[in-house]
Amino acid sequence: MELRDGRVNLFDGSEHVAPPPPGVMRWIDLPSADRPQLELMRERFDFHPLTIEDCSHLDQRPKLEEYRDHIFLVTQGFAAKGDKIHELELQELHAFLGERYLVTVHERPILALEEVWVRLSTEAKLLERGVDFAYYLVADGIVDDNFPILDIIADELEELEDSVLGSPKRQDLQRIFELKHHLVSMRKVLSPQRDVLGLLAKRGDSRVNDRTAVYLRDVYDHLVRINESIEANRDLLGNALDAYLSAVGQRTNEIMKALTIMSAVFLPLAFVVGFFGQNFDNFPLMKEWVHSDGLMWVMIAMCLSIPAGMLAWFKHKNWL
Amino acid sequence: MELRDGRVNLFDGSEHVAPPPPGVMRWIDLPSADRPQLELMRERFDFHPLTIEDCSHLDQRPKLEEYRDHIFLVTQGFAAKGDKIHELELQELHAFLGERYLVTVHERPILALEEVWVRLSTEAKLLERGVDFAYYLVADGIVDDNFPILDIIADELEELEDSVLGSPKRQDLQRIFELKHHLVSMRKVLSPQRDVLGLLAKRGDSRVNDRTAVYLRDVYDHLVRINESIEANRDLLGNALDAYLSAVGQRTNEIMKALTIMSAVFLPLAFVVGFFGQNFDNFPLMKEWVHSDGLMWVMIAMCLSIPAGMLAWFKHKNWL
Amino acid sequence: MELRDGRVNLFDGSEHVAPPPPGVMRWIDLPSADRPQLELMRERFDFHPLTIEDCSHLDQRPKLEEYRDHIFLVTQGFAAKGDKIHELELQELHAFLGERYLVTVHERPILALEEVWVRLSTEAKLLERGVDFAYYLVADGIVDDNFPILDIIADELEELEDSVLGSPKRQDLQRIFELKHHLVSMRKVLSPQRDVLGLLAKRGDSRVNDRTAVYLRDVYDHLVRINESIEANRDLLGNALDAYLSAVGQRTNEIMKALTIMSAVFLPLAFVVGFFGQNFDNFPLMKEWVHSDGLMWVMIAMCLSIPAGMLAWFKHKNWL
Amino acid sequence: MELRDGRVNLFDGSEHVAPPPPGVMRWIDLPSADRPQLELMRERFDFHPLTIEDCSHLDQRPKLEEYRDHIFLVTQGFAAKGDKIHELELQELHAFLGERYLVTVHERPILALEEVWVRLSTEAKLLERGVDFAYYLVADGIVDDNFPILDIIADELEELEDSVLGSPKRQDLQRIFELKHHLVSMRKVLSPQRDVLGLLAKRGDSRVNDRTAVYLRDVYDHLVRINESIEANRDLLGNALDAYLSAVGQRTNEIMKALTIMSAVFLPLAFVVGFFGQNFDNFPLMKEWVHSDGLMWVMIAMCLSIPAGMLAWFKHKNWL
Amino acid sequence: MELRDGRVNLFDGSEHVAPPPPGVMRWIDLPSADRPQLELMRERFDFHPLTIEDCSHLDQRPKLEEYRDHIFLVTQGFAAKGDKIHELELQELHAFLGERYLVTVHERPILALEEVWVRLSTEAKLLERGVDFAYYLVADGIVDDNFPILDIIADELEELEDSVLGSPKRQDLQRIFELKHHLVSMRKVLSPQRDVLGLLAKRGDSRVNDRTAVYLRDVYDHLVRINESIEANRDLLGNALDAYLSAVGQRTNEIMKALTIMSAVFLPLAFVVGFFGQNFDNFPLMKEWVHSDGLMWVMIAMCLSIPAGMLAWFKHKNWL
């Protein structure tokens, strides 16, 4: 059993940069994908040029490619940065899984991988279960890192729904779109990731022994659950968006109602005071009335009764 | 035939915590998933560590995992709390189905299981039909508990549709989203549950005999029906939401119409009384007219005819 | 060849309540699913308890279950009540199809079945083509009863589209939702019904001979066409709803335009008459002007030109 | 090689109304599906009663039914009437394809068929390539008639999009729904048509020789392309509808803005002239001011500055 | 190894216009699909008339057709014109891939093909890897040209989302529809393109050797990634459209609020000044009050307190 870290000066012609002799399990981790090292790997392990090409470019998609001596696997997942997730960090691991060797290449440090590395360094027997089991441990870690993100999203969604059904704010909308963005990104990566792991777990392959396949099936199960959560959350986000939009429409209604009620009260009043503001002295017919208080009382009565009537009518129409 | 309840002090080194001898059917129920008991089970029954891991964490998804000696099944369903469903309770049962033993693990009491347990305690012959039949009885109960929920949802939906097409209220919207939430949750669980039971019913497996398979197919049928109801209800909820939104838009229209009609009546009137409120004494041309009643009658005529004309026009435009 | 009707006093220990001897085709119809009769059938024909259970509960879903001696079939379809369809009646037939017998159970009278029964009573040779052919005739009738419903829906849809694009009414919306409700119900039933008949027509089964299979394929074809019509109608209903909603928005615009135009005309006028309503005697500067007609003509000119200008501008903006 | 047209008096006991002798290819076309002719065909060619039933009813769906001696094919497509498509004409051809004979039945004249008929009449050798090749020629013509329709729809769509993004009109909406109607109809027919021709082209069948299969695969390819165009056009129609709806909303905004700006200008002015229209002589405090021009200048200043201030504010809010 | 360019005067009876002798690889490129050349090719290479038909018409769809001696491939992709993509250029290559020859036909120059041609002219050994490898190089180039387009679209989308959530403009809407148009076009072409290359890479075919198949699988992978990006971008475009529409609704609200607030302030004021503008001298009751300043102060107090009260109420209702 051997663990070889590319960070340590492994590439000074070391004999360890090669498939191990029978009976030995060897895991080599290249924490940075620099070209000369990759070329050396290609020569010694007989990797296909296309896989080396892939390794030197991040942002591949999850895939499984079978070659004569090894399987080439691209494994991806997300890790949240901070508490409220505003940015997702894509974790990408390229792995060559042979019968007795595992070569992992990545550009940024992957927490799950570090943990497994440390664990294997101390529990030597674990690597003896096979390099496929080591791959399982890393993949399991990468996949499980997605759960907290979905939990946070679910929590935020619940908050959003409450906020949106209560008093929707412009920021809610922005947050809805942000979350949808995250879910689209996650689905784009984790849906093919699920298929890749399903493929790896289910088919018989000499590089994956039956005992490990059971564990990989478990990772596959997690990915199925993750993908179902993504779909359910997308559904609920659509809900929240609909609620937001309907709340905006509702608010338009409320504002309109306020405007209408005010107009209903004051437009007639403006007419009333305008009417009684006439210079009635001009009109012979009115002259006798005009200098009594009667007209004033009529006006005041109208100023009170018209708004009252309007409001009663609105009450009746259920607009208040 | 034996029934063993984990609640009874079964784990004091009891010999019953093990696969039964040939000819005996044994069902052990662990009503709480505490770790030491699970560990003991694992040793005695040779369960896979991953299944033990699953058993100690609720909120798995429905699944079927085959091992050499037994099938590991996660079965889920919902039970309503109270009459109007505001919260759904997820029921989750973990079961190990061997040829002669059934081990069930759950954290919260499952009503359907209790009923079957009591029934088997009294009708000893039933367990002799096999532990798979016992599993069927429990699964059937868990699945059938979902029907009343769907019935309630369908009833509420009908009420909602009436309310929304009549006089939509803000609470209707909230209820629509609540129901959609429930349906999303149910689909997330019951759609894989259907697949699991379909798988169990259809394939030949030594742990499930043909007679029981017929019954499991029946449970599968129920799940298909449940899932179809979920889809149909989702469709109708979308309907209700559309109706709500269109009702909101309609109401905006009505309010706008009221405002417009009022403005159409009173804005011209304001102009008329303003116009005739002029101090016509200033204008030589008008002087002769001004002190007769003619002008007043003209004004009054306009105050009556303009609103009447407006209302007639709106009538013609079909806005009243 | 025999036809036996459960309504006739068949269950007084009649020997006919049993599979017929070789060479004889027997069709027994139970027009009401009462328990003792079903129990008797179960004993004599060796039906599975679950099928008996199903028979005594309406509202199953279309399904095909194979047993050793017979196939159990649930066949469903809709019949319209009246001309304008406001309610759909679900027709449900439970059938046990053996090699020489057909047992049909239903709770409400099924028109298609009655017709076939009468036809077979008079044309004895038809039953000799096999009980599967009798089943085909009934299923064909039940399925074809759905066509008129779809025709009515299509007609109503066309009317709705015209109405909605012309002058949408609140009832249109209600009708749209009602039709959608019907289509959701129909799809829920007729989509599995199609699968069931496809299965029955296509697989080789000793209970369905090749000649009948050709006919069943024809019923299957009808169901495919029905399901395609349902989908197309759903699509067009979505269209009608969109048209309705956009018409509501359009109407808001028209009302707003009316309001805006009126305000545009009368608000400036109110200002003009207010302005010239000032007591210009107060202002020394104005005094000389004030008692000529000039000011009045200016005011009248403004009262005419401002509305004219506004309307011209609106004309230019294409709002009239 | 023979071509027989049902229009010519073929059914006077002609010996040609029958499968041809070996070595001869015979194509009989019935341009009207009248019952006695169909019955005669049925007897002589041994056609299945159900196919005769189908032939006498237009509006079947595309299908392929295999019988011992022949394949029964329903082929459908659309032809546009006029330049701007307002109505689509469904073309429906029923064909019996035997090894040495082809019987085609249709109710309305099918242009593509006429052309092929003429061509074969003059190029005798073409029919010697087999009756399947004759069927290919007709089917190819029927399918290719759909391309111009899709081209017209695509052109109209482009116009619609421009119109809708520029100055949307009520007719645009009507046209959008009309086009969608057409696309729904086309998909309903051409999607099963594609499957039927795919089936015919791909499977080995004695009635279709390998050379013709290559040509049928080409027709299948056209149908795939047609169906993809239908889907893409549906997508773009959705686009156009969204654009229309958003334009309506936008227009509401513009109208509202005009109203708000006008109100913002004239409501304060109405207050100002109302305020200064007070009879200040009443108030001792004002008396000294009132008969100077100062008050008038203040009023005029306010009448100019308030609208200016409002407009500046709206400018700042970006509403102008 | 030979490269033959149709532009060079190849068709003067050259012997090279024919399948090459064993041991020689020959690639002939026809940069313009003129009929006589195609006919010559057909004769010499025994191509199927349908493929020649296809070659002389652009705008086919990606496909793979197998003939005895060769595979006929239509390969399509897009290239952007300029920086901001306003128009996509469809690149279409028709290829006949035999065991020792590759014939490519296109109407417009294809950059990727030119590059490969030059490269092969200088690196003679590359063509010895087989004509299938030459096809791979061209297809790879055509497919990879799509990536920059998707990158540009993704960048624009991000800008659009920011703009739309900030201050949406009419042009944003236009751009959203333009991008959607592009994505619909791309999907229509690149989705079948993916299937074609998947088919070519995965099945064993004598014309594609195993070494090349690995490379084709890589192109297939790129196409899968491209199609996933298209879907994800469509999703996000839907987002942007929703955001735009909700922003329009929001803006309506803001405008309405401004209008309502202004009306709330000035309509009561108009009433107040109208009321106090009455000629109180007419009313005996008021006479004593009227010539003091008290009434004026009351009016001024109301002119200040009513707007203040209204604004406070709006503040309370959270409308400011």
Fold topology:
The structure is a homopentamer of 320-residue chains.
Chain A: E1 2-5, E2 26-30, H1 35-45, H2 49-55, E3 63-66, E4 70-80, E5 88-98, E6 101-105, H3 111-122, H4 124-127, H5 131-144, H6 146-166, H7 170-202, H8 210-276, H9 284-290, H10 294-316
Parallel strand pairs in A: 1-2, 2-6
Antiparallel strand pairs in A: 3-4, 4-5, 5-6
- Along the chain, the helix and strand elements of chain A come as EEHHEEEEHHHHHHHH
Q: Helical content of chain A, roughly? A: 55-70%
Overall geometric form of chain A: rod-shaped
Quote the beta fraction of chain A.
5-15%
Most extensive protein-chain contact, per-chain counts:
D-E, 46 and 50 residues
- The Rg value of chain A, from CA coordinates, equals 36 Å
The largest sheet of chain A has its strands arranged as 1-2-6-5-4-3
Terminal CA distance of chain A reads 79 Å
The biggest sheet of chain A, with number of strands, parallel, antiparallel or mixed sense and barrel status, is:
6 strands, mixed
Structural class of chain A: alpha/beta
- Count of distinct strands of chain A: 6
What oligomerization state is this entry in?
Answer: homopentamer
